Amino acid sequence: MTTAMSLPETIAFLERDFPQMNHDGPAFHLESVGPLSARMRLDHHERFLRPGGTISGPAMMALADYALYAAILANIGPVGLAVTTNLSFNFLRKPGPTGLVAEATLLKLGKRLAVGEARLFATGSDDLVCHATGTYSIPPER
Amino acid sequence: MTTAMSLPETIAFLERDFPQMNHDGPAFHLESVGPLSARMRLDHHERFLRPGGTISGPAMMALADYALYAAILANIGPVGLAVTTNLSFNFLRKPGPTGLVAEATLLKLGKRLAVGEARLFATGSDDLVCHATGTYSIPPER
Amino acid sequence: MTTAMSLPETIAFLERDFPQMNHDGPAFHLESVGPLSARMRLDHHERFLRPGGTISGPAMMALADYALYAAILANIGPVGLAVTTNLSFNFLRKPGPTGLVAEATLLKLGKRLAVGEARLFATGSDDLVCHATGTYSIPPER
Amino acid sequence: MTTAMSLPETIAFLERDFPQMNHDGPAFHLESVGPLSARMRLDHHERFLRPGGTISGPAMMALADYALYAAILANIGPVGLAVTTNLSFNFLRKPGPTGLVAEATLLKLGKRLAVGEARLFATGSDDLVCHATGTYSIPPER
Lengths: 142, 142, 142, 142
Fold this sequence. Notes:
CATH architecture of chain A: Roll
Oligomer: homotetramer
CATH superfamily of chain A: Hotdog Thioesterase
Low-confidence stretches of chain A: none
Strand order of the largest sheet of chain A: 1-2-4-5-6-3
Largest interface: A-B, 28 and 28 residues
Shape of chain A: globular
CATH class of chain A: Alpha Beta
GO molecular function (chains A, B, C, D): acyl-CoA hydrolase activity
Number of domains of chain A: 1
Protein name (chains A, B, C, D): Thioesterase domain-containing protein
Structural class of chain A: alpha+beta
Keywords (chains A, B, C, D): Hydrolase, Membrane, Transmembrane, Transmembrane helix
Number of helices of chain A: 2
Helix content of chain A: 10-25%
Strand content of chain A: 35-45%
Pfam families (chains A, B, C, D): 4HBT (PF03061)
InterPro entries (chains A, B, C, D): HotDog_dom_sf, PAAI_dom, Thioestr_dom
CATH topology of chain A: Thiol Ester Dehydrase, Chain A
Distance between the termini of chain A: 26 Å
Number of strands of chain A: 6
C-alpha cells in the first residue's frame, strides 16, 4: 500500500502551499508520509517559546494542523485543497524547550471529509504533550 | 461591575507574559476588557497570509487563545497563570486579506476552571469567520 | 425571512426521523423554529437523572444534538438527512432536577456543511449549564 | 502495574453511581479495566436505533462517556466523583444494527484533570465508528 504522493512530492506541494509555514526560516519539517499517516517535526526555535521555556500553544496548533494536512495531501494527491473545518486540542503537559514531533493518523478519509488525530511529543520523549483532532473538507473533483 | 485589572494593566501583563505574541513587530492589540469579556484585534500582515490572501488558521487560533486569556486575566487579576487545557475551533468562512477582531466571552469563571468562547470577524464585517471555545485551568492561590 | 418548514412540519418530520427520541414517553419538545435557529425543551423526568438529582450528560447531549438538527431541518427543508459529523460539549454547571431548554443557532449553513451552537439552560433560569457546538454534513441534492 | 479498583469493584461503583445507565434493562457492560484504560460494551437494543438501523448518536456519546469515566474510576479509586467538563465527538461511519465496543485510554491522569480518548467500534469489526475525547475534573481530596 502506497501513498498518492511521495515524501518529496508532498514536501514540494506544502512549500508552495504554505510558504508562511517557514516564513522566518525553516522550522517545520515533514519527515515521513505513509498510508493514512504523516510525521512532522518542529525545530526548537526561540520564536516558539513562552516565558519559562515552554513551546507556545499556537506553535503546537500549527504543527498539528500541518501534519494532518500533509497526511491528507500525501494520501489523496494534489487534486484540490482540503480546507480545515474543525480543530480541537487537548494540551496535556508543558513541553520543555525542545523540538516537537507530530504523528498524524487519518481516522477517516472519505470523498467529502477527512478526519484525523495528531499526537505531539517532545523530541526524544514518549510523553504526549498535546492531542489534536481535525476535520477537513475535501473539495469536489473538477 | 468592573474588572480586576484595567485595560492598560492587562496589556502590560500580556506583553510581559507573551513577548513572542508580537515577536515580528506589533500585531495583536487588546482593544477592551470588560466583565467576563475582552476584545482583541489582529493586524493585517503578510506573515499571517496563505496563498489566495486568506489569513492562516494558526494566526486565527493564536488570536482566539490570546483574547480568551486576556478576558480571564482581566477578570481574575494577576494571581497566577491560567493554563490552556482545551481549545476547539470551527472555521466557518475564509476571511479575506484583512485584519481580524476577536470577541471573547467567558461562559464560566470558576475557581479551578474558566471556559469561554471567542468569535472572530473580519475587520469591518459582521461575518463570523471562526468560532472557538477554550478551557483554562486556574492554578490554586498560593 | 421565514424558514423552509414550519414548526408543525418540522415536528412531524422529527417524530418520524427520531422515534427513539421519545421512546419512553414524550420528553423532547420542539418549541420554536426561526431563521437559523430553533428552541427545544427537555421535560424533567426521572430517567434523565443522576444521583444527586442532576440531569445526566447524555440527556444534555441528546437535547443539544436534536435542537441543532431541528434548526437545520427547519431551514433547509426535508431535502435529505443531515448527518452529525462532530459534536463538542462544555459542561459548565450542574443543573438541578428540572427541565432544560436548548437554544440552537446556526453559525453557518452552507451547501455541504452546517455548523451551529446550542446553549442549554435550566428551565426558568439564565444560568448556562452546557454549551455545545455541532457540525453536520448535508448530503448532495438528488 | 495494577488499577486502584478491580473490575468487579468498578462495576459495583458504576451501578450505584449511574443507575440510569441501565434504566431500561442492562445494556452497558464494563468488560475490562487496566492501567489508564477500560473497555465497555453496549448491547444491541432497539431503543438505541435510528431509522435505517443505525445506532443513535446519544447512545454512542453515553457509551464513550461511561467508558472514560470507568477508566478514571478504576485508576484513581472511589476517592471522589470526577465531573465531565468537556466531551468532543467525531462520528466517522454509521454503525449497522449491532452492539458497540468502546476502548477508553487515558492520555493524562493528573491530580486535578484527567483527559482521555475513546474509540468506538461495531462489535466484531475493526472499523472505527466514533472517536471521542473527554476531560474530567477530579475533586480535591477531602
